[in-house]
Amino acid sequence: MVIALAQLMVVLDATIVNIALPSAQEDLGISDGNRQWVITAYTLAFGGLLLLGGRIADLVGRKRTFVIGLVGFAAASALGGAATTAGMLFGARALQGVFAAVLAPSALSLLTTTFSDPKERGKAFGIYGALAGSGSAIGFIVGGLLTEYLDWRWCLYVNVPIAVIAVIGALALLHDSPTHEGARLDVPGAVLGCGGLVALVYGFAEAEPRGWTDPLVLGLFAGGIALLTAFVWWQTRAPVPLLPLHIVKDRSRAGCFLTMALAVIGMFGLFLFLTYYLQVILDYSPVLTGLAFLPLTAAIIIGSTQIAARLMNRVAPRLLMAPGALLAAVGMVLLTRLTVDSSYSGDILPALILLGLGMGLIFMPVFATATAGVAPQDSGVTSATVNTAQQVGGSIGTALLNTIATTSSTAWIAAHLTDPAQRELVTKQGIVHGYTVAIWWAAAIMLLAGVVAALMVTAKAPRHGTPHQEQLAERAV
Question: Which of 154, 138, 132, 135 is nearest to 20 (CA)?
């Protein structure tokens, strides 16, 4: 629960400020062009520095890194809550991302090394996967409540008490692993890998306001790909590589990373559209919008802890992940029928339940399978790679699907606006049309995640008892 609490805080912060953003923008005088930096500063630092954070966890010690990450994250959150200028808020959000990049890999690697018994491991990863998958939706609920009844600043201050509880729990309950003598930090690898990821995430963030063909966006993509290519080349020659390539060369593990990235691309884009659909088209309040996501959160938790965790020791991971992706895709297809007059109970609720159950079936086996059987000294960087897939996928999904939605809406409105008296109705219809086009893309990407899981994740179901533990020990040695 201590580890899951820390993970919840990290995932929560990717979305909790979304609903608070209009209030913060007005309060601090942030321009429309710069408001995206409240979101992007966090995801940019988080996604870009995760690999480095994972390796630091392996070198310094996971418990120590976990506590440092919690304390730093709480301090950055307090600074953001007290922000008096736009620059101060952007800086605090970036600092949150830096400490989240240290905290998230150490949390997952602690989970990996603490629970080795297959049955206990299934329960632990069920809880972890549920919170990792539903944290974004919980962020909308908490963000709505805090913004409406307290103040937008509490969307940042709320992390302080959570971190205090987690630090006390960590000091009392968690056990550190021994650090490895002679281990060194791969500085060139860190510069190339983190630089490449930051360039890519920044490129996707700028694609939304600037367009995909903007010279800056194209330059960032080209630079990111060049840096990541150089990173892969260097990892084959580095004496102590930042990301040992044998981690990615494992077919099942690579399949898990790719499945996670594709599933999150679809899911994060959908969160964005539904938030705006409920508030702009159906006129929901921030609190009501947050509560509308509650069935999705509940479905993810049920799918992860009650279905996936119970079946994980009996069936191969892909037999959970591929049907999960199919369920989620069906939920998304249901949402393509949205109109300006759609009802929540008839049109949105069934789709959210299917989507939640599907995501629960994906997240839990992905986390458990990707980190299974990894040598202890590599567990931090493996955990960081799973988190990187999640963060980069989220950034890509938001930018890619939002651009598709905006372009489709603009074209539809231009083609159908013949009577100026009907401008408001046609504009709303055009916006919803853009959402449905983007959701079709999201459904297709989710199906692709299912295909990847079915074809690439060849790991078998773990066996009960000591043979599996002996196998883990042998692989660790």
Answer: 154
Distance CA(81)–CA(77), nearest Å, equals 6
Interatomic CA distance for residues 445 and 449, integer angstroms: 6
On whether the CB atoms of residues 431 and 80 are closer than 8 A, the answer is no
Contact criterion met (CB below 8 Å) for 210 and 262 = no
Sign of CA dihedral 160, 165, 168, 174: negative
- At 41 the pLDDT is 80
Interacting residues of 213 by C-beta distance below 8 A, sequence separation 6+ = none
Give the C-alpha separation, 37 to 434, whole Å.
Answer: 24
Pick the closest to residue 270 from 335, 327, 209, 212 (CA basis): 335
How many Cα atoms occupy the beta-carbon half-sphere of 474 within 13 Å?
A: 6
User: For residue 464, what pLDDT is reported?
Assistant: 47
What was the pLDDT predicted at 461? 67
pLDDT mean by block of 10 residues, the chain; 477 residues: 82 76 81 71 79 78 87 93 89 91 81 74 75 71 82 87 89 70 72 83 75 88 93 85 79 88 83 79 82 86 84 84 93 90 89 91 84 73 78 76 82 82 84 90 93 86 46 36
Exposure string for 149-175, b = 16+ CB within 10 A, e = fewer: eeebbbbbbbbeebbeebbebbeeebe
What does the angle CA 389 – CA 50 – CA 259 come to, to the nearest 5 degrees? 10
The secondary structure of residue 223, as a DSSP letter, is H
458 DSSP assignment: -
The string of DSSP letters for 70-81 reads HHHHHHHHHHHH
- What backbone torsions phi and psi does residue 184 show, to the nearest 5 degrees? -135, 160
User: Helix 86-114 to helix 2-12 angle, to the nearest 10 degrees?
Assistant: 150
Question: What pLDDT score does 130 carry?
Answer: 74
Among the listed residues 43, 32, 52, 30, the one whose alpha carbon sits nearest the alpha carbon of residue 94? 43
Token pair of 244 as six digits: 């040992």
Which burial class, exposed, middle or buried, applies to 424 when counting CB atoms under 10 A from its CB (0-12, 13-18, 19+)? Answer: exposed
Task: Tell me which H or E stretch contains 162.
Answer: helix 159-173
CA distances from 338 to 47, 159, 281, 299, 435 (A): 32, 35, 11, 21, 9
Residues 381 and 55: beta-carbon distance below 8 Å: yes
φ, ψ dihedrals at 321, nearest 5°: -70, -45
Per the CB < 8 A criterion, the answer to whether 396 and 272 are in contact is no
CB 73 within 8 A of CB 166: no
Model confidence pTM above 0.70: yes
| Structure tokens that stand for 282 in this block | 């159906």
pLDDT at residue number 467: 39
Q: Which residues of 37-49 are buried (b: 16+ CB within 10 A; e: fewer)?
A: bbbbbbbbbbbbb
